[in-house]
Amino acid sequence: MREIFELQRGLNIYTLKRIGLDFEEILSSTELKPIWIENYRKALSAELAELVREVHEHGFETHNGRVEIVDMLHFLVSLSHLVEIQPTEVGMDRPPSGGEDFSACVVRCFLALDELQNSLKWKWWAKGGGFKEDRAREAVLHLWSCFQEACAFFRMGFDQLKSIYVAKNRINFQRQDQHYNEDTKTEADNQSLARPA
Question: Does 197 have pLDDT greater than 50?
Answer without folding.
Answer: no
